[in-house]
Design brief:
Strand order of the largest sheet: 9-10-15-16-17-18-19-20
Bound molecules: acetamide
Number of helices: 16
Number of domains: 2
Radius of gyration: 24 Å
Distance between the termini: 45 Å
Structural class: alpha/beta
CATH topology of the largest domain: TIM Barrel
Shape: globular
Length: about 525
């Protein structure tokens, strides 16, 4: 059988069809009905809406004999969490999922068996929709297959986030980590503290590129999600078996909050950040500030039902605390060693608070410094060291080291790459990454919940530029996170080419494999190599 361009690659794909039957596959037509178990009703609705729109077929519900598409859940089928089996023959197509997520992933694979036009939003006219005879058994390697999207540096309008969720689901990714606050913007409505968005969601201009001397665009930027926007995003993601993990960054990366409520800071008034990079402005360590953020997190926990709440914790410069009488008094009063200890103390104020509400604290690997909070899960980004140390100490970790996971990094050495920053991170580098470091093979590998890639948007000012930086590297990452087989980039490339036709049908402005289109370049805007 010719290789089907399935991405991510399933665990096992065999030619299908029962022995003795024809092998010309299953044609979907006006008579095709979908029969789904009640537990698979969400996927049934999704499949009818998506495939119905693309094919123009009604795909109504049906029972038994008439139904050519069957969606069932069977935890006893030995498929494993999120696993599924998909069998297509001339009698029908059956998806058996271990759980509702497994059925959804089976339906995603079923859609990939059709021509790329199955990804359009409306039918192109008379077409034959034939699924090939096949027997696929599949399950993910990792339970955390994530992507962090920074909507703070540049706001992504809600429709862009919903579209991104669909793109994640197509790739069988299941965690959207939303970086909601930073120095340059606060993007989440908090009822109790309205100035966080009235003031904190807007900046008067933005730095252009990363070169020196710094230049600015002179154009205001901003935006935020109302609480109803967030409820919609969270529910939309959940229907696609994606958990949204919120991040509200403390005690660094907080200048937008301090601009809105100066009493949270250590110094005088500040404006919402206009410049990229690590900013000296940090939160103070008063009881009132801790209380303020606990109140913020109460609303965050109301909106985001998932187990993980991310407090950031990265890149908190210590200069302001060194010079602050109240920070020094806190260090003395709590018997802390130094400012690292103070950062650790700050994070701990939320660990027990979350635990009491049945949630778990997630933070970047700086939260290891000065001692890791008891229940913390660590995002290992400054290489793998933090993740290894945390796993050895019995903590759960998510691997996202810069060298293989930072999709803001440049995609080639070419001068044509727009605003090149970071180290070189080619498609093939993302594809070849191994999330479990060798140091954990003997012990601690079970602490690696999975992996994610991070999309920091200082230099991505629209969903179009996010498309360019994210794709197709996110497609390569999906295979790293989902598939268990040995990976060969040469084997992947032809499948990816088939997959790019899907992205074309959807309208994803990915980076072409041979370099950017002219309009994807940013001549004259310096990066930082
Ligand atoms: C980070 O890249 N500051 C987590």
């Amino acid at each position: 059988m010719p290789a089907l361009p399935l991405v991510p690659l399933p665990a096992e794909t065999l030619p299908g069809g029962a022995a003795g039957r024809g092998a010309d596959g299953l044609e979907l037509d006006a008579a095709t009905r979908i029969d789904a178990d009640p537990e698979a009703a969400g996927t049934e609705r999704w499949l009818r809406a998506e495939l119905g729109a693309a094919t123009g077929l009604p795909l109504p519900p049906g029972r038994g004999e008439d139904a050519r598409l069957r969606l069932t859940v069977d935890p006893g089928a030995g498929l494993g969490p999120e696993g599924y089996r998909l069998i297509v023959d001339d009698e029908g197509a059956v998806v058996v999922g271990h759980d509702p997520a497994g059925v959804f992933y089976g339906a995603q694979t079923l859609r990939q068996l059709l021509p790329a036009a199955a990804y359009r939003r409306s039918a192109l006219g008379n077409r034959v929709w034939r699924l090939p005879d096949v027997r696929i058994t599949d399950r993910p390697r990792f339970g955390w297959r994530g992507c962090m999207l920074d909507v703070a540096r540049h706001f992504m309008p809600k429709h862009g986030v919903l579209r991104f969720i669909d793109l994640m689901a197509l790739h069988k990714l299941n965690v959207l980590h939303l970086h909601l606050t930073d120095d340059q913007g606060w993007r989440l409505e908090i009822r109790r503290y309205p100035r966080l968005t009235e003031t904190g969601a807007w900046r008067r201009e933005s730095q252009v590129g990363a070169g020196g001397p710094k230049t600015f665009d002179g154009r205001p930027h901003g935006g935020f999600y109302t609480q109803d926007d967030i409820r919609e995003i969270v529910a939309y993601a959940a229907e696609r078996h994606i958990t949204v993990v919120p991040e509200v960054d403390v005690p660094g990366h907080s200048q937008a909050a301090i601009a809105a409520y100066p009493e949270l800071g250590e110094g005088g008034p500040v404006e919402v950040g206009r410049e990229w990079g690590i900013i000296e402005t940090v939160l103070n360590t008063s009881d009132a500030t801790i209380e303020f953020y606990r109140n913020v997190f109460d609303e965050v926990m109301e909106l985001f039902p998932g187990p993980y709440i991310c407090v950031g914790g990265d890149e908190c410069p210590k200069g302001q605390w060194r010079a602050s009488a109240s920070a020094q008094a806190r260090i003395a009063e709590e018997g802390l060693q130094d400012e690292e200890g103070l950062q650790s103390w700050f994070i701990r104020q939320f660990d027990a608070y979350f635990a009491a509400k049945g949630r778990r604290l997630l933070g970047w690997d700086e939260i290891l410094e000065g001692g890791l909070a008891e229940g913390a899960t660590v995002l290992s980004w400054r290489g793998t060291k933090g993740g290894i140390a945390a796993a050895h100490a019995g903590h759960d970790v998510i691997m996202c080291p810069t060298a293989t996971s930072y999709l803001d990094y440049r995609q080639s050495e070419s001068q044509e790459e727009p605003i090149p920053v970071g180290t070189l991170l080619r498609l093939s580098d993302v594809y070849s990454a191994e999330p479990v470091p060798p140091e954990l093979e003997a012990e601690g590998a079970d602490r690696v919940l999975g992996a994610q890639v991070n999309i920091w948007t200082e230099h991505m000012d629209s969903p179009r530029t996010v498309d360019y930086m994210a794709f197709p590297r996110l497609s390569a990452f999906a295979e790293v996170a989902w598939s268990s087989h040995a990976r060969s980039f040469d084997e992947f490339l032809p499948r990816l080419k088939g997959h790019l036709e899907r992205l074309d049908a959807i309208g994803v402005e990915y980076r072409p494999l041979d370099g950017p289109h002219p309009w994807q370049q940013r001549p004259g805007v310096e990066g930082r190599a």
